[in-house]
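Q: A reviewer asked whether we had any structural model of the full assembly, not just the individual parts. We don't, so I'm hoping you can provide one. Inputs are below.
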Amino acid sequence: MTAMARSRSTGRAHLKSAARGIIVECLYVTVLCAALFLITTAIWYLYSRCRA
Amino acid sequence: MISRPTLRDYRVIGFFTGKILAGVSLLYTVPLATAAAFGEWSAFVDFAVGMSATLASSALLMLLGDDTRAPMRWVQSMVIAAFSWFAAMLLCAIPHYLSGNFLSYLDCVFDVMSGFTTTGLTLIQDLDHASHSLNMWRHLLTYVGGQGMIVMVLVFLVRGTAGAYMMYVGEGKDERLLPNIVHTSRAIWLISIVYLLIGTAVLSLLLAREGIGFPRCLLHGLWLFQSAWSTGGFSPQSQNILYYHSYAVELGTLLFFVIGSFNFILHYAVWSGNVKEMWKNIEIRSFTLTAALTTALLVFALARLSLYSDAFVLFRRAVYNLLSAHTTTGFASAYVQQFKADWGDLALLAMTTAMAFGGSACSTAGGIKGLRVGIIAKAIYHEIKRIVLSEDAVFVTKFHHIRDIVLGDQQVKMAGLIALCYIVLYFTGGILGVVCGYPFTDALFESTSAGSNSGLSCGITAASMPAILKLYYILVMWAGRLEFISLFGLIAFGFSIFRGK
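A: Here is a predicted structure for the entire assembly that you could use as a starting point for your response.
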């Protein structure tokens, strides 16, 4: 493997790793929002039931 | 013995402040190009004047300064960090003042400091009709301020300087991504620029989908991304995010401001393949927990008032504004008056608590920071465990931040000290607000917003507010952004001038 091919392969690996990192970060925000939505819905439901 | 600063100290401080200002002067090329592209020739002249003044100040300071290779002292680097932020604030306000969108120079420096510290409080007049170049300038300052002015200069202008790391610490970032500080600065900018490209593309497409034509969608996409990523809160419209009336835009900005509030070390670790760090890191765990608790409190406060018709609308309003507060962004999807008049004191306190906690250390966010909140929580757990276990039991408490770290007294002391400084800053502003005639809850909300660099307002921040409050907010935005380290350095420097021998 030439030096250039090796460097290209390392570059591709870095890019892949960074892309995976971005996806993981986005996934965290999605999970956080889903959890906060569940909290909101639960409190809303409980409060509505208590008031009724 | 305390030694009085020598002429060399002043010359070193002058030289590096000049160098940082040289870096800042390069930023003017962006609004100049924008003004030329959109034929805003009056604004072009404003920015040319601003650039000339900054370059002249930079040249003068570098000429009078001392470019010595001798090791820099901590106090020098702290004063450089503190002083360069003030000098940049005064000089970058020139185009603001010449634009005619501000009522006084004090309002201009307030806006610039708010931008640089990624706060988002603003005193601009007629924002909806401000020029593209002025908007570009304001958002660029926020974007650069988020990464750090010194971090930017370290990438381009300061190579191999012994004091580079000290200046980096003085700017409120005390962790390295890589052993070399210049490489660390480059990595921070690489991460930010990659996200800039992705974020601008995503938000521009979302805005185009909402019917905003080209090139406005591209400009607004860029500005909203810069504000979101830097957890800034500036927006090109006076109604902030509410202007777009778009659920997609709200979700898009939410995604980028939450990611923007992460520690750059965490970004680097996750991007380097250490994916598990995302779930194990103490800052993420601490942020998730405090976000959940403050959301619950806010939702309870709003549900009690029956303001919103169903859980979905409540989620949209409460969670967006709460996460904006917690990440210290300052984007608002509710009217300023609504926070004060409709949401009530409990909701305001929930938002204030979220702002006080803030985002992550070594990030674009402000506030006490998740790392410190996590360390303090671990210390409390440690003390409870000590009481529960037998007296001769030996145990250690660990936390995970990139690696497992044993909780030490020094970490707890520093975390507690900085958290205490923030709390004093928030409450002093609250008391000052009351002195100026505002209700305590509102004054505490606004002061916490300024001190944690959040930028949400319940109506106190306006051109008509007392000058003393404007000056106090400028000071707390600066002290909060630099995490008191430079403030301590500046106090030590002032002390040595008067008491040194």
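A: Points you may want to mention in the reply: Chain B touches chain A at residues 194-195, 198, 254-255, 258-259, 262, 267, 270-273, 275, 278, 284, 288, 291-292, 295-296, 299-300, 303-304, 310-311, 314-315, 318-319, 323 (CB under 8 Å). The longest helix of chain B spans residues 181-209.
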